[in-house]
Amino acid sequence: MDEANVARRGLSPRLWLAGGWLLLALLAAIFAPLIAPQDPLAQDLMLERLPPFWLDGAEPGYWLGTDSLGRDLLSRLIFGGRIAFIVAFAAATSACLLGSALGLIAGYFGGWPDRIISRIVDVWMAFPPVLFAILLVAVLGTGLSSVILAIAIIDWTRFCRVIRAEAMSQARMDYVESARIAGYGRVGIMLREVLPNVLPSVVALLSLEMGIAVIVEAILSFVNLSISTDDPTWGSIIAEGRLSIHQAWWVLVFPLITLILTVLSFTQFGEALKARFDPVLR
Amino acid sequence: MSACLDIRGLSAVLPNGQRVLRSVSLSVQPGEVRALVGESGAGKTMIGKAVLGVLPKSVRIVEGEMLIEGEDLGRLDPKARRTLIGARTALIPQDPLTALNPSRRIGPQMTDRLVRILGWSTETADQRIRQLLDEVQIRDPERVLKSYPHELSGGMRQRVLIAAAFAAEPRLIVADEPTTALDVTVQKQILRLIAQLQRDHGTAILFVTHDLGVVAKISQKVSVLYAGKVVEEADSSALFANPQHPYTRALMAATPRYTDPFASLKPVDESVLAGLAAEIAAADQAWRPGHG
Known about the structure:
The complex is a heterodimer of chains A (about 280) and B (about 290).
Chain A: H1 2-30, H2 32-35, H3 73-109, H4 111-125, H5 129-140, H6 144-171, H7 174-182, H8 186-222, H9 234-243, H10 250-277
Chain B: E1 5-13, E2 19-28, E3 33-37, H1 44-52, E4 60-68, E5 71-72, H2 78-88, E6 89-92, H3 106-117, H4 122-135, H5 141-146, H6 154-167, E7 172-176, H7 184-201, E8 204-209, H8 212-218, E9 221-226, E10 229-235, H9 236-241, H10 246-254, H11 270-286
Parallel strand pairs in B: 3-8, 3-9, 6-7, 7-8
Antiparallel strand pairs in B: 1-2, 1-4, 4-5, 9-10
């Protein structure tokens, strides 16, 4: 009991801080047109490289300053969040569904399904992920759906490996054997007995993967292989900021902070959720 | 009347050809408790698993028959076998920690089998479970039914598992060292409960244990197992009064006495083990797979 209480007290700030930031960023992304102080695409060379609000030379209405084309940085970050979240949810969910399903089958059934799936995973993991992503997007063509598809295709193995191991250890438990003796079918046992017990890990990984998807999308944007160059994404803003780092550091620093906070929140939120979901830790 | 469980000449091998069960024969009559005694690795649990159809994939049955109430498991197709085993048998497992699904509440977990596999109505199943919880002396069934397994003590969990095993009125229960994972004080209560329910329900039990003290308390018949071979078989009272096989005698001598526990803790005598090894080698020599 004591342990559970310690765990709960220790977890709460983590859950609320991470969840709070994600909620804030998500709401900002959803209501971007209402919230953004400026048009994220509007260029004004009279206003180029304005510093953030607390420095000399800042203009009201441009809170975090402007980039080298005079576009408002805060507005671009807010709009960039839209793509980040769409990619995070869609790519992570696809990777999760594919990887978890295969991992569950491999771990629970063992034997030849396991051998086939594990070999595919081994081969898959031998590809350098970022190069693989760049290659995939180059083949599939740039665009939102290609980016999502590429991330899902690369990262399903992450789910597959973890869920396979968990399903394997669950499958050895006596309760699975008891269900078998009682006369439940294999598929039924996999879905009704094993799946609920690996679900906490699935949830934690899903959240972690959302963070990774945000990073991969940013990397693809950085190398100009993500969405059309018009739409602001965190990665493309960082790429631009890199070029003007000596004149306008804020164009690089603010998107980086946003990215780091978001990815960190996703991973922390996942861990906290896992603890909440797990009846033994609860 | 056919035996509740009849095992005839059962042999099983590992992939490397080593025999883990050596022509095991034993039977359990309706309403009877048969103890299966032996040290770790003797194959006691293996026999239980073979009966229940949950042998590890690596263990292969190469000869022999298993009959549950006269029906030969080997002659049934897998689905019919599962149905028969599910309807007529149950398991009281060794480790109550892992024998309950940690993410499901006790109530649904117990009724689910009755409703989904045996087709009872939810109400009947619910009533039945409450009745069984009462029989295993669980005082606050409401709380237990709503609990997750980790919220219950080991003894409580074992009671739940006993109730679950008896719930569907199986003819045969395999009890696989059901008290080994429990505290000594709880062991006694659990043993008494199993004996009580066994008498009330008239269920036959194959009681797997390494504890001769337990055998004396609960069983009418005993089979002593060594290295997958039944070395002695007798009525419990006869076995304790007059053990025939040297291994059985050695096993009894190795059981600690409470009067002087340390003095009597001694391993099974070397010469007895040597004799056993010779006996088993001779049996293996005579044995040819497929000629059973």
